[in-house]
């Protein structure tokens, strides 16, 4: 097959006039021999179209007064009405504030802790001990948010929660605190919960990048008499830079995806003002109240802003000659 | 002894500073393990402790009055047992179909001479960055008649793009000679896929299976969104989520339904707290027992996807 293509390629180069004919012939021939490949992929292309591309058409709902009872083409168009409502809605700004606040906290906390833990894990020489620590640190990642939220809210409860018990034993607080009832603390609790759940998992990519570092660098550092902290500071951390930048860009694209499950499951009437984010807003207006148009408008806002963030971050990385996504 | 010390000194760099570093590092790691494990082990202890006794507090890592009554009660509840069954069913069917279909598409886009290779790849990758969002997806599912059906757990997520790329990268690493000799033996693409690609890709398929199975087992949002009015399609995670929501709501005052739940529960010598702990354990134990054995694979799979995706 390959030899055949090679011969064909040579023939193509000899004459321009035959070129198009030959190529067409090859293409048709390929089509024939690739029937099986097509049978294996085209059904899933159709699936992809239906489940991933058709919903994009659903964005038009945001510009209509959508009524589920009517057909797709019988809806009345309403222009930017829903967007105007959105930008006049105080609730919208509240959930936007919560979304951004929690995203930034999760992003910063998530990055710092994962990189820090990866650096410290890398300094452990007992490979058995290291592996056990890693396995244990991955555990919460595999729990569902429902399970995690259940565990977290139990740990934070006033009567049996370990957090209050430990803090009281240490004399830091004298009264148990109703942690999930303090609305202004919710962002922090959400951030720490996210770290607890994902920090171990997030070290995987950094540890993989660390294994790529040339051991000679460490040997040279040893000869120069570098301390452990100096080795981390001048060798390990700089070589993680490309990985960190790529992950940062990718995460900036998700800046309005502050997560949904944690906020929804840890949220309660007492912390609602600080726990509700954009996704919960969409869910509330769309599914619970049936205002599909408004909820879709909020969804579009989210996607567009995410895209702007992603492209800006990528552009900045390009300007500073750093690795980038595309 | 002396020699070992010398060896260590050159390798690690002597000095009190380094020993101090190690001391703090190891202490920190042990602390980390405690923080990761304790909340879970605590729930195990609560689930194995007598329900009304648990309310007095003071249960840490070991039950005070050991009992299996909580488990008996939870598995005795027909609705919870049925939810457990649905959870298992969606995990098994969802994982098998998804992994097989994803691998199949991955194989086609790993063939360099496949005419649709570029088109298929790009069409899939774009969906990683753009999606319709909650409401359009919900309306689509509704229009397709998938509301209140089991298949809403399987069909919409049958191919994961990240998994697709991970498997494709792996298949591209299989030596070309194997494919060529298969072709000479007259094997078609489908036969090659079944007889060569699948067996050789077992490591990556194990990884992807773990990801998919965990996702299936853990999901509750699709149940909530699409099937909340069909109790016999409920899953374990969703049942647990409802209990959690109840106790969240009752934080700011006991609700009537909560009080009712309390009285029925007390008649059976269980409490919402102990039911929650027990279901937490049941909902997480299957995964916790499996993932450590697949660690080698998922670490590799994740880095493969991260580098090439």
From TrEMBL, chain A:
Keywords: Membrane, Transmembrane, Transmembrane helix, Transport. Gene3D superfamilies: MetI-like (1.10.3720.10). The chain crosses the membrane at residues 36-54, 104-124, 234-256, 292-317. CDD domains: TM_PBP2. It comes from the Bacteria. Residues 96-313 form the ABC transmembrane type-1 domain. One of its GO terms (cellular component) is plasma membrane. Pfam families: BPD_transp_1. Coiled coil: none annotated. It comes from Neobacillus bataviensis. This is Aldotetraouronic acid ABC transporter membrane protein 1. Belongs to the binding-protein-dependent transport system permease family. It is a multi-pass membrane protein. One of its GO terms (biological process) is transmembrane transport. It is found in: Cell membrane; Membrane. The keyword Transmembrane helix applies.
Automatic annotation (TrEMBL), chain B:
It is found in: Cell membrane. GO terms for biological process: transmembrane transport. The chain crosses the membrane at residues 20-41, 80-107, 119-138, 150-171, 192-214, 275-294. Gene3D superfamilies: MetI-like. The keyword Cell membrane applies. It holds the Pfam family BPD_transp_1. Keywords: Cell membrane, Membrane, Transmembrane, Transmembrane helix, Transport. It comes from the Bacteria. The keyword Cell membrane applies. InterPro entries: MetI-like (IPR000515), MetI-like_sf (IPR035906). It is a multi-pass membrane protein. One of its GO terms (cellular component) is plasma membrane. Residues 84-291 form the ABC transmembrane type-1 domain. Belongs to the binding-protein-dependent transport system permease family. PANTHER family: ABC TRANSPORTER PERMEASE PROTEIN MG189-RELATED-RELATED, POLYGALACTURONAN_RHAMNOGALACTURONAN TRANSPORT SYSTEM PERMEASE PROTEIN YTCP. This is Putative aldouronate transport system permease protein. It comes from Neobacillus bataviensis.
